[in-house]
Fold this sequence. Notes:
Blueprint: H1 3-9, H2 11-22, H3 28-35, H4 37-51, H5 59-62, H6 67-75, H7 82-87, E1 102-125, E2 132-134, H8 150-154, E3 159-176, H9 182-187, H10 192-195, E4 198-203, E5 214-224, E6 227-237, H11 239-243, H12 249-254, H13 257-271, H14 276-287, E7 292-294, E8 297-299, E9 303-307, H15 309-314, H16 322-333, E10 337-341, H17 344-349, E11 354-357, E12 362-364, E13 374-379, H18 390-405, E14 407-412, E15 415-420, E16 423-429, E17 441-445, H19 455-468, H20 471-486, H21 488-492, E18 495-496, H22 498-511, H23 518-534, E19 539-540, H24 542-565
Amino acid sequence: MDVDETKMVNNNMEDVEICEMNELNLNNELCEKLLFPEKLVQSSFQHFLQTNSHNNLNLKILSQWNFVQDLENRVGIKLDTEAVLKKLPNLGSQLSYLKGGKLIKFNCMIQNILENQFYLAFCRDKLNKDEFRVNKYFEYQNNSMMVDNDDDLFGDSDYDTKDNILMDRLALNCVALPGLSSDLAKLMQIGDNLRKKKIIVLDYENSQVKVNQEILVIGVAYEIDDTIVIHSWKIIQNYFKFQSDLNNQDVLNNFDFTSARKLISDYLKLIFNGDELLAEYMNLFLVAQIFFRLETKNIGKLLINIINQVGSRLGIEEEFDYFAGLQSFLARITNFSKSFDVTIDSMNKNYLFSRFDVNTEELIQGEFQTVDHTFILLDERKLKEGKLNDNGCKNFNLIKTLIDFQSISYHYPYSTIEMHHDTQILTVSDSCKSMFSSNELIEIPFLNGLSSYKLDEHRKNLDLYFSNINERDISVMRRYLDVCRYSEEFAKKFKIDDEVSKMIQRDFVENKNEDFSAEDLDMCIKIGRLYAISNGRTELVLDDYIFAKDCESKRKNRLLQLKKKI
């Protein structure tokens, strides 16, 4: 099929694709090949056969064929370059064009690893012994070629069953990224129609992926019996970290941490009606991540419980809307966020945990099955007394385990499996303690303006915030959080200044008999470390440690004042 014939079949779509491919400075012949990925795979395979025609083509020889490597070395297209990725269409934009197969990209989460499945990879023509049919990297016919389908394996009389070659591939159940910000979902063209689809990714390269991992899949997609099947050409793991180019030292050296940090702080102070201490802790909360695990201890995380004193004491709980402003703000500046209203009814009825359905033999995704670096906001302000049923108890245990140990549970008929996670959790409660009270939750009372709080003025300020926040600010703040949370410079190369080390030792010795425990010291070091990172530094200096001690002193004083009022 030449280019003119292609335009007659699907004029609008392929005109756009040809135009986009030409922007890559590729020749027209190559542009046409990319429009027909199956032909590109077959061409690569035929080139491999010609190169190895002197060999006895057995499984060992054929397994050496690597289409993606050939695409890069011989054809000159490297799939994971920014120029190519920008031009590949998103899966969400191609849902009406998948019948014949489309080369797409798809940002997703691995919801479950289904199986290692055998499939018919190659078979030899009976009449022409030098001709092979290839079923790798694309769907040769519109049904899956797995070994339990005898018609697919042996039903084609034109091919010699004696020379059928079976190989294995990994079948992944993938879902559109949960909790993805609305801006990014629009950019990636991930809508409700795509989220409702069952999507299977076939990994031919044994990419060593894991459940809950965020990936970008590049491959040929087909829709077969209401299921989208993607034959993967390349899987980019942790794409958000990959595309940020954060291992480039120049990126860190040239980034304006001071301006970006101030921008976030200004918005947070506006949301919290000028409460600088709470805004500061929230800023540190946003850049925190686990950088080391020691048994059940997760080093680096910072989880917060905001005690909503204002709403409860003034009796305006339903009208006090700073939490709604915070939800909207985090949904714009973070890549992934989720909110959940904690009530007895919601805990009993919802499934926050993933569970195995024995009837369909599938793992059903729970609401809290998310990718790493997701922010989860729990609103406990409407929580009343009541009784949790069995489902509610499972949800409670899931949240408690996520807070205490940063792991999430998967429920099977006769067992429960725990998997590590890196999730930032913030709870808001009207009482002194969260329902999920834990040593891992930092309690911060919101005491600002109790006697002179002006609800109407605050609401106007929030309305002003919603109307004036612009795309440039969003881009700067999201980039800032990506740099702080994804960069290995901060995770692996952070160190403590010698002067600070001496001061830490002195504080511990001098205050060990006072109200300053090892946990308090650990918290000061954690706050100081996050403060340094938020300012773009990889070393904890004396000013950072002093700042942390001051913040902790103010926070504890607030808690003390709160206890006196109760």
